[in-house]
Specification:
The protein has about 300 residues and is an all-alpha fold. About 75% of the residues lie in helices and about 0% in strands. Helix 2 packs antiparallel against helix 7, helix 4 packs antiparallel against helix 5 and helix 7 packs across helix 9.
């Protein structure tokens, strides 16, 4: 990864950790994510007006990829919310956070881009996954197979597949957009436009997912009065996503970006310890060290 890509991902990791710190207090669900996505789309849409000239150059394939990434994003958000409803944070979080690394890595092999991933980076990705699984535990004895045989695990794995899906699609879609864009050196413009298109696509899919449920419909209505919380979350999610999309233009393979995004985990641990007074259990310390070692290997790779 280039230094510029690393800087963009580090900045996105800070915003991601900040959003999670805030989200931990509001306990977001499916309806909450719908409102946040709505605010993301509305607040960022004026940026589209500044770059409207490039939209008519986008191919049909690009537009279908926008539809597909919205689907994967909606799957991720709804299944993550469902996983937290049915399971504990210490089980759900590492699965949802680390599994996309392996899925994207295997996806790169399937798509024929694996030669761009070094052996050091692959080993680093495996270490990051191991660290993510260990980190949320209070005791090492909690790492038992029966703790993962439940509905929460299934929802977390589906959420992880959604993350991997939109990561791979985003890489392909923005690669096409950069080739079709009317101005040279348009990586920043493409990132801004793409996240707006993705937000509207995800909002449409989330609407289809949530409307059949009467409970979700009631929650959608009740959350309008908490618009400040949902708007703030939407802004932070949009900023994080735009920085990640931008960084993809400077990475050899999307696996590097997905892997290095996990730097938000040590940042989140530090924020939780400093701002919320969370305890630093031995597995948490070991997990952070292993993740940092894996991140260093990804960078060197």
């Amino acid at each position: 990864m280039s230094l510029f890509a690393i800087g963009l991902v580090l900045l996105s990791a800070l915003t991601h950790a900040g959003w999670n710190l805030f989200g931990k207090k509001v306990s977001p669900g499916g309806a909450f994510f719908w409102h946040s996505t709505l605010w993301s789309a509305l607040l960022a849409s004026p940026l589209m007006g500044l770059n409207i000239d490039g939209l008519d150059r986008l191919s049909t394939e690009t537009w279908w990829l926008v539809v597909l990434t919205g689907f994967f994003q909606a799957v991720y958000l709804t299944c993550l919310a469902a996983a937290y409803r049915h399971g504990e944070l210490s089980i759900v979080y590492p699965l949802a956070r680390s599994s996309p690394l392996l899925i994207v890595l295997f996806g790169s092999v399937f798509l024929g881009s694996a030669e761009r991933i070094s052996a050091w980076a692959v080993l680093g990705i495996l270490l990051i996954v191991a660290g993510c699984i260990v980190l949320p535990m209070q005791h090492f004895r909690q790492l038992r197979w029966r703790n993962y045989q439940n509905r929460a695990t299934l929802c977390a794995l589906i959420a992880a597949a959604g993350t991997a899906g939109y990561s791979i699609v985003d890489d392909a879609a923005t690669g096409l957009m950069r080739k079709q864009w009317p101005t040279p050196d348009a990586d920043g413009d493409v990132a801004l436009v793409y996240v707006v298109l993705q937000a509207w696509s995800a909002l449409a899919w989330l609407t289809l997912f949530l409307l059949p449920s009467s409970d979700e419909r009631r929650e959608l209505v009740s959350l309008f009065r908490y618009w400040r919380s949902t708007a703030l979350t939407g802004v932070m999610i949009m900023a994080t996503y735009a920085l990640v999309i931008w960084s993809m233009a400077y990475a050899d393979d999307v696996s590097y970006v997905v892997a290095f995004r996990q730097v938000s985990i040590p940042i989140g641990v530090a924020m939780g310890w400093y701002f919320l007074g969370e305890s630093l259990y031995r597995p948490k310390i070991v997990g952070v060290v292993v993740i940092l070692l894996g991140l260093m290997m990804v960078v060197l790779g």
